[in-house]
Write a structure and sequence with these properties.
The chain folds into two domains: 2-113 and 293-324, Medium-chain alcohol dehydrogenases, catalytic domain (Quinone Oxidoreductase, Chain A, domain 1), CATH 3.90.180.10; 125-266, Rossmann fold, CATH 3.40.50. It has helices spanning 42-49, 119-141, 159-170, 185-191, 200-203, 223-231, 255-259, 274-287, 293-296, 302-313; strands at 2-10, 13-21, 31-40, 65-73, 83-87, 102-105, 111-112, 151-153, 175-179, 195-198, 214-219, 233-241, 263-266, 297-301, 320-324. The protein is built from ten helices and 15 strands. The longest helix has 23 residues, at 119-141. Helix 1 (42-49) packs across helix 10 (302-313), helix 2 crosses helix 3 and helix 2 crosses helix 8. The strands form three sheets. Strands 3, 4, 5, 6, 7, 14 and 15 form a seven-stranded mixed sheet that branches. Strand 9 (175-179), helix 4 and strand 10 (195-198) form a beta-alpha-beta unit.
């Protein structure tokens, strides 16, 4: 038996609780992992609260990422004792995820824990930080360099945004952080932001084209915020879009794309190819100032993760929530 958060939906309603789970209930997979840490992300918040149609099967163990040690393997690639990370692949949605003390998974979903990272550091980064790294890699791939000008990060006080600010600052970019929480300005400057702006300046309907300012952008909000970012990009600018905290709509025009050559780069962390994942984690181990993780991370136990899910959706959580599943 082991402990985990279990989400159930039946005639009694939708609920999440910490339960004892029989190992015989674990889903199919060729690798069993003893989980050290998981995290609480926006998607996990939707799953635990039921405020979004994230969970496709019941009962479900949520948790879209994990780090742990292989304790049994029928995969030629992994042996007992290997330290591994998992992000995405539908875990916590269609396949039991990381918010439990054990997980059974497909070996092809796993990547090795970089030697430079401890398990706790890996989850302090987590899916949010891995997604932020994919955004940075997209900006680089499209030619955005520090010399090109300012880079803007929206939702900057959240998980993806916090790591994006820290990464970009470490790489030499001038970072402008946008947040709906002005009280987090000092926190964001501590991560490396040169300036902090309030989200209200971006959240209302804007013009098809605005004054050119940004060489690049990382957006986790969507809707009017993303539309306004696109409208205010410099010629040839690039926005990496990875979230929808403000809505799935995009009330924009084609003007920035056909008159300024702006690129909107979509970032998918869930089904990204394995070689891209390995490169992203390699980069995180070298390009992120790991000393900044402490200020952006709070560690909680399994039971604490359930009430925190609602706070996360309400934008009341700063940075990253690491879940010690063995507490």
């Amino acid at each position: 038996m082991f402990k985990g958060i279990v989400i159930e939906k039946d005639e009694a309603g939708y609920r999440a609780a910490v339960n004892d789970i029989d190992a015989a209930q674990l889903p199919e997979g060729d690798v069993t992992v003893a989980v050290d840490y998981s995290t609480l992300n926006y998607k996990d918040g939707l799953a635990i609260t039921g405020k979004g149609p994230v969970v496709r099967k019941f009962p479900m163990v949520p948790g879209i990422d994990l780090v742990g040690t292989v304790e049994a393997s029928d995969s030629a690639e992994w042996k007992v004792g290997d330290k591994v990370i998992l992000n995405g692949w539908g875990v916590g949605e269609t396949h039991w995820g990381g918010l439990a003390q054990k997980a059974r998974l497909k070996g092809e979903w796993l990547v090795p824990l970089p030697a430079a990272l401890s398990p706790r550091q890996a989850m302090a980064i987590g899916t949010a930080g891995y997604t932020a790294m994919l955004c940075v890699m997209a900006l680089e791939r499209h030619g955005v360099t520090p010399a090109k000008g300012e880079v803007v990060v929206t939702g900057a006080a959240g998980g993806v945004g916090s790591v994006a600010v820290a990464l970009l600052a470490k790489l030499g970019y001038t970072v402008v952080a946008v947040s709906g929480r002005p009280e987090e300005a000092e926190y964001l400057k501590g991560l490396g932001a040169a300036e902090v702006m309030e989200r209200a300046a971006f959240a209302a309907p804007g013009k098809p084209l605005a004054r050119e300012r940004w060489a690049g952008g990382v957006d986790v909000v969507g809707s009017h915020v993303l539309a306004n970012l696109c409208a205010s990009m410099k010629y040839g600018g690039v926005v990496a879009a990875c979230g929808l905290a403000g809505g799935m709509d995009l009330p924009a025009t084609v003007a920035p794309f056909i008159l300024r050559g702006v690129t909107l780069a979509g970032i998918d962390s869930v089904m990204a190819p394995r070689e891209v994942r390995i490169e992203a984690w390699r980069r995180l181990a070298t390009d992120l100032d790991l000393s900044r993780l402490a200020v952006m991370t709070k560690e909680v136990g399994l039971a604490e993760a359930i009430p925190l899910a609602a706070q996360l959706l309400e934008g009341k959580v700063r940075g990253r929530l690491v879940v010690d599943v063995n507490v």
